[in-house]
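Contributing: when you submit paired examples, paste them exactly as shown. First protein:
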Amino acid sequence: MTNQFISDYEHFLIVRQGKKTATAHKYFTYLKQACHRAYKDGLTDKYLFARYKEPTIPKRSPRTITPENFQRIVSLQIPSDKPSLIIARDLLLIACYTGMAYIDAVSVTQDNLSYDEQGSLWLKYKRKKTGVQAVVKLIPEAIELFDKYKDAGLPTLMPRQNYAFLLKNLKKIAEMAGCTRSISHH
């Protein structure tokens, strides 16, 4: 592998394959890690990425759900024979009400809940991604969602759903609700 190969690989990904810069960056990260490991393990005498600048990812503002689409999703009547859609919507709503990432939403347990002196219910947990302590005062809508699954015999406050399946379900929910934009969990 040479520096020319790395350059050609970038051209192949972005120009010939039509990959977005963020996707190419992800592939370069994997390749860079492999090259670094080979260098550390003595399999190559030089680190190939030493002078190579990876493609930069353009900055963009985060996409948020519009108040109209949020209200459509909240008020959407999902048939009871579609439990996976109900769970997907509930996971989305708990994220909106608490700011939790998906992995945190499906990991928190009853032990993460506590009351303060004023009787307000708080959720205290360590974020899976960063390990940082998070503390969230729960609003009534979030408490209602947690209570909905309280007697389901789950080890966590919310049911787990495969993330790829969740995204497909959210796409269906957006269509059912007549949302003007696609929705995702984060």
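Second protein:
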Amino acid sequence: MRNVSTLLHMRDHPPGPLWTGRASNRAQWLLAVVGAAFVVLGVQLAVASNWTSGIVPLVMSVVGCLAAGLLILFGTLAFVHVAVTVDAESLVVRCGHIGLPRCTIRLAEVTAAEFVPRVSPHQWGGWGYRWRPEKGTAVIVRRGEGVELRLDDGKIFTVTVDDAENAVRVIRTHLRALAR
């Protein structure tokens, strides 16, 4: 990561990210283990069962366990961590190990950036990619500091990330440069 004070005085900058940050939630790994256990149970039922009550209950049990396990596993792993990058044109949020879901917000569409010292999953209805009509959209992976962007269409976007205060400084510097 580059020195923020140097970035604040730069007028022209090299291509590439100006700020990068991450946030993670180790507690969600426990949910991933539960999802994996459901998958194992589904496989165990499919392989080792000699159900005499028919094929339909067996198929329903196997499919139910596999479906629940995969939904829990992939839904959890998608929001174990978040990576946020600010470059000269946009803020990009990538979730999980594959980078999906991915959200790109152009800095030209941002009217204000605020540091939020305490963002809680409780405020947004849980972890993950959240939308609330009265609040806007958020990517919440843990409780703690975050960045709140007010967009030119009146919507708000919030993301929890470590070192959010420096991210806001870099974004505000770009907003001032765009206003000139």
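If you have annotations for the second protein, write them as plain sentences, like these:
The beta strands are 19-24, 81-86, 90-95, 102-106, 110-119, 128-132, 136-140, 144-151, 156-160.
Residues 55-77 form the longest helix (23 residues).
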